[in-house]
C-alpha cells in the first residue's frame, strides 16, 4: 500500500513565509530513506510519495535540482517530481537512481520536463517526489533524496 512520507521541511509547523518582491528565493529539503523518524526505514513501493518542500502561493518556479542516491539494484525504478495538481509537473518517469549510480536531475535533463519552469503557484503547495515503479526485487533502503527549488516572489 502506498504511503506519504514527509521531509523534515514539510512537517507541520514548518512554513514558508511568502513575501512579495524578494527576487530569487530558494527552498531545500532532504529525505533520509533510512531514518525511521522521518518515515523512512522501509523500502519504497509503487505510488509512495515524499513531500519534499513547501512552496508558497505567488511563487514562480525558476529552476530545481534533484539529487537522487542509488535507490535499487535493478533497472525497473521510475519516479516523478510534481505537486498536488500534477504528479509529474517537473520530472516524468525518471530512472535516475537505478543500479549502483545515483544522479542529478534538472529541467530538460534525463526525465526533467522541458518547459516545467516559470510555473506560478496560485495557492500554497508542496513539491513531491513520487515513486512510480519499483522492481520486484529488494530496493535499497538507505540514501538521502535532496531537492532544491529556486523561485521568485514578484507579485
Structural summary, described in words:
With 155 residues, the chain is an all-beta fold. Helices cover 0% and strands 37% of the residues. It has one domain: Jelly Rolls. The chain has a 5-stranded mixed β-sheet with strand order 1-3-8-5-6, with no helix packed on it. Strands 2-9-4-7 form a 4-stranded antiparallel β-sheet, with no helix packed on it.
In short:
This protein is mostly beta strands and 155 residues long. The protein has no helices and nine strands. Strands 1-3-8-5-6 form a five-stranded mixed β-sheet, with no helix packed on it. A four-stranded antiparallel β-sheet has the order 2-9-4-7, with no helix packed on it.
Topology:
Blueprint: E1 4-6, E2 24-32, E3 49-55, E4 60-68, E5 78-82, E6 91-94, E7 103-105, E8 125-133, E9 144-152
Parallel strand pairs: 1-3
Antiparallel strand pairs: 2-9, 3-8, 4-7, 4-9, 5-6, 5-8
CATH architecture assignment name: Sandwich
Total number of distinct structural domains: 1
Per the principal axes of the C-alpha atoms, what is the gross shape?
A: globular
The SS-based structural class is mainly beta
Beta-sheet strand percentage?
35-45%
Q: What fraction, in percent, of the residue positions are helical?
A: under 10%
**CATH class category name:** Mainly Beta
Main beta sheet, described? 5 strands, mixed
Core attributes:
globular; Jelly Rolls; four-stranded antiparallel sheet; mainly beta; 155 residues; 37% strand; single chain; five-stranded mixed sheet
Amino acid at each position: 500500500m502506498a504511503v506519504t512520507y514527509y521531509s523534515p521541511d514539510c512537517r507541520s509547523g514548518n512554513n514558508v513565509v511568502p513575501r512579495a518582491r524578494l527576487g530569487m528565493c530558494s527552498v531545500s529539503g532532504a529525505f533520509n530513506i533510512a531514518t525511521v523518524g522521518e518515515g523512512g526505514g522501509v523500502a519504497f513501493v509503487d505510488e509512495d510519495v515524499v513531500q519534499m518542500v513547501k512552496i508558497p502561493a505567488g511563487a514562480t518556479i525558476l529552476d530545481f535540482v534533484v539529487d537522487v542516491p542509488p535507490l535499487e539494484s535493478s533497472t525497473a525504478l521510475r519516479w516523478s517530481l510534481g505537486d498536488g495538481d500534477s504528479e509529474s509537473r517537473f520530472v516524468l518517469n525518471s530512472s535516475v537512481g537505478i543500479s549502483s549510480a545515483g544522479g542529478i536531475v534538472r529541467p530538460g535533463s534525463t526525465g526533467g520536463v522541458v518547459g516545467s519552469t516559470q510555473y506560478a503557484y496560485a495557492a500554497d503547495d508542496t513539491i513531491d517526489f513520487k515513486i512510480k515503479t519499483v522492481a520486484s526485487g529488494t530496493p535499497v533502503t538507505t540514501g538521502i533524496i535532496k531537492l532544491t527549488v529556486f523561485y521568485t516572489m514578484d507579485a
